[in-house]
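testing teh design pipeline on a random one, pls ignore if ur not involved
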């Protein structure tokens, strides 16, 4: 995904051992992806002891882009209803004050007891805050986001097909840097989930809206590029 979005830019895969100031200071953008499954590794990968480091790096100009599980963890508290019915309440990293509650589509994915993991995949309908066309992207147990209403926090995306229209995408300015949280997976193409049962109908529906996903992905890239362009060299 990143190689296609940021053509010509060096992209490096890192692990938790690289979460040091000397290493991360070399980067403009840190992408924290979603996960497979219901057990988030982020509390172990990025413990509370790293919070001040990340805040300092963002204040100096780093952009952090967090999707799904990373968006949960970006906020100060998390609530999650597991497939087996267990409710989890955990402390988030707290880079942004607020709460993440998921799955946002619990009324669909948790309505009939314990279901196969494929039931967790929803093609979300999302409304841009600028009034643009609807976005269609895969949601896989993504959170409804409730960042606190600071002037430095801007909401750019909401769930259009959930009654309360909770936040699905926001940015939060911190010093010269930026935090961006997104509930869904704009990087996942229909071909990734495949056309075999039981996902065939979902695949076909997503394929019809592929242009929407690609346009949304490009808009996220533009948020990053526009912000980095404003940072003094």
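output:
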């Amino acid at each position: 995904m990143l190689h296609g979005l940021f053509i010509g830019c060096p992209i490096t895969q890192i692990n938790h051992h690289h979460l040091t100031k000397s290493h991360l200071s070399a980067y403009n953008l840190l992408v924290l992806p979603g996960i497979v499954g219901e057990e988030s590794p982020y509390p172990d990968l990025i413990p509370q002891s790293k919070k001040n480091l990340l805040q300092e790096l963002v204040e100096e100009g780093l952009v952090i882009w967090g999707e799904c599980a990373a968006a949960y963890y970006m906020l100060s508290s998390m609530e999650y209803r597991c497939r087996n019915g267990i409710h989890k309440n955990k402390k988030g990293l707290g880079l942004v004050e607020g709460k993440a509650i998921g799955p946002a589509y619990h009324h669909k994915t948790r309505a009939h007891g314990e279901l196969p993991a494929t039931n967790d995949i929803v093609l979300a309908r999302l409304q841009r805050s600028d009034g643009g066309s609807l976005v269609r992207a895969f949601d896989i147990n993504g959170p409804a986001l409730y960042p606190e209403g600071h002037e430095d926090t801007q909401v750019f995306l909401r769930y259009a097909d959930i009654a309360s229209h909770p936040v699905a995408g926001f940015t939060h300015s911190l010093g010269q840097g930026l935090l961006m949280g997104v509930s869904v997976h704009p990087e996942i193409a229909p071909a990734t989930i495949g056309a075999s049962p039981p996902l065939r109908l979902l695949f076909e529906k997503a394929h019809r809206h592929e242009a929407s996903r690609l346009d949304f992905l490009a808009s996220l890239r533009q948020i990053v590029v526009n912000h980095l362009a404003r940072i003094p060299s």
